[in-house]
Write a structure and sequence with these properties.
alpha+beta, 4-stranded mixed beta sheet, 19 helices, 8 strands, 7% strand, binds protoporphyrin IX containing FE
């Protein structure tokens, strides 16, 4: 298999370069070093560069759904809790009960069944048509706060800023916590802030393949237990409060609820299953933790990116404003504004902050086309490479929402754009994510005009050279570089009146 050697301290940008080059040369799969720790711990990622091959692998077999990388994070967090005996429920905590993030594998049918059950419950809640108005209400309740913060932070359109930190992230976190725990977050601003700090740190440490973490994860548990906690990564201690917060929310929910009661929360169906003996307590804690880890900064960065894409493309912005204005900004569902959906999907393509699939760990020996993979090999899909490939998207450097509209002007998906990926580990939150981005954007475009600022220049040449300067070339270990980060994120948000 072709091998790609990136420069030292490479990051998402360099991994994307390897995808683009290999796709251009019609290489369906290539290997890339993700970790080389003193030559002792070496991990290669095998990037799948072809959407059709990805569909074959992820839709037609069960051997690519291990979560070895994430399991290690839960191991360290749980063992830290157990060893320090300080935080609540330390006696029972279990790293094996990772809920919906459990491995899907034939060698563990019982665990696989529990993992699938958790996912089924999550999907039932998040994809339930009858609950959609509840989520839309929760999203719309955030709008006045978002407008206020946009005006404050942007000094009424005079100062460029990144709308993620104080606008889209608090809104997305508030919606997510409301949905997960069925609580009203409107008076809990400082708590939301705390949960944001926890979730960002947790996601950063969960998705990063760093040598320190992997060394601890790969040695046997008994050996790990001989290593004093002061030599463990600091976050193992710092994130105990995150788990405690989730346990407290579950306990608070359960005080006023019993099996059979209606509750539009994620806890109720999970807790019902636990009481029937279908899953364990820590499966619930870890499923909710996974939701909070994955469900806020993804939608928040996607919304902020969409604003940035509109700032970079004034004619598209004007057209979107006019389309929505003509319907008095009334769009209750996706079908009420096809052009907005097309703008959002083009923005997912042009600014794919979630730039790759998860790392999928092979659970039993398997063959993909001419290549043999062994248990514990890492696979991932070259999402961003495909997004920026002429083969799959003609004129890939141009922002053209029309590519997601059919002849009648109706929104149509393109099977080569998989922002939520596919298969048994695909994003369970995609309906909620689209609802959030849709309703946030509908309201923001009504209130603000987005512009690139001379004080925070962004290349709008839409050329190959310009593309390279659009992205941060920072290393994976740099803060927030689990995303493919733009080099410049700040834009002007100018109130329309
Ligand atoms: C625009 C926003 C979002 C994007 C682009 C996105 C994208 C993704 C992608 C690409 C994956 C990896 C799928 C795979 O490799 O198979 C994923 C996984 C996941 N997402 Fe999302 N996501 C978004 C929002 C959300 C939301 C709102 C939630 C929860 C409410 C969520 C929860 C999750 C979880 C729990 C996983 C892990 C699933 C597993 O490993 O079994 N995501 N997401």
């Amino acid at each position: 298999m072709p091998y790609w050697n990136p420069p030292e301290n490479e990051g998402p940008y360099h991994a994307v370069l390897s995808m683009r080059e290999n796709i251009k040369n019609k290489v369906k799969m290539h290997a890339y070093p993700m970790l080389n720790w003193l030559g002792l711990v070496k991990i290669d990622i095998h990037w799948i560069n072809d959407p059709q091959t990805a569909r074959e692998v992820f839709l037609k077999n069960d051997a690519a759904y291990g979560h070895l990388d994430m399991k290690g994070w839960f191991d360290l967090n749980s063992e830290y809790r157990f060893r320090t005996k300080k935080d609540i429920f330390w006696e029972t905590c279990s790293a094996d009960e990772t809920g919906m993030l459990r491995d899907i594998k034939r060698s563990d049918p019982a665990g696989t069944k529990i993992g699938k059950q958790c996912r089924k419950r999550v999907m039932e809640v998040l994809a339930k048509k009858s609950l959609e108005p509840v989520w839309v209400d929760a999203i719309e309740r955030e709008i006045p706060k978002m407008i206020r913060r946009m005006k404050e932070e942007g000094k009424n359109g005079k100062v460029a800023f990144y709308p993620f930190d104080n606008v889209t992230m608090p809104a997305a976190m508030s919606v997510l916590l409301g949905v997960s725990f069925n609580i009203d977050c409107s008076t809990r601003e400082s708590w939301i802030r705390k949960m944001i700090d926890y979730s960002c740190k947790a996601l950063h440490t969960l998705t990063r393949l760093d040598g320190h973490k992997l060394f601890l994860v790969l040695i046997p548990r008994w050996m790990r237990n001989l290593i004093p906690l002061s030599f463990w990564p600091k976050w193992t201690g710092e994130l105990q409060g995150f788990t405690t917060e989730i346990i407290e929310m579950i306990e608070e929910h359960n005080k006023n609820w019993q099996v059979g009661d209606e509750s539009p929360s994620l806890i109720a169906p999970l807790e019902t299953d636990r009481q029937k003996g279908l899953l364990k307590y820590w499966d619930i804690v870890h499923t909710l933790q996974a939701m909070i880890l994955a469900g806020a900064d993804t939608t928040a960065t996607s919304t902020a990116s969409c604003m940035r894409q509109l700032a970079m493309n004034p004619p598209v912005q004007e057209k979107l404003f006019n389309v929505l204005n003509a319907q008095d900004f009334r769009a209750d569902s996706f079908a009420d504004c096809h052009y907005l959906m097309a703008v959002i999907y083009e923005s997912y393509r042009m600014c794919p902050m979630v730039w790759r699939s998860l790392f999928h760990v092979v659970t039993e020996d398997m063959k993909i086309e001419d290549y043999n993979f062994s248990k514990d090999d890492f696979l991932a899909y070259s999402h961003t490479g495909v997004c920026f490939s002429e083969i799959y998207f003609p004129e890939p450097l141009k922002f053209k929402p029309e590519r997601f509209l059919d002849e009648q002007g109706e929104f149509k998906k393109n099977e080569n754009l998989m922002p939520f990926f596919i298969g048994k580990r695909s994003c369970p939150g995609q309906i909620l994510a689209n609802l959030e981005v849709f309703h946030f954007m509908k309201n923001m475009i009504k209130e603000f005009r987005f512009e690139v600022s001379a004080d925070a220049p962004i290349d709008t040449s839409f050329t190959e050279d310009g593309w390279h300067t659009l992205w941060s070339h920072g290393a994976h270990k740099e803060w927030n570089h689990h995303f493919l980060l733009p080099a410049e994120n700040k834009i002007l948000c100018i109130p329309r009146n």
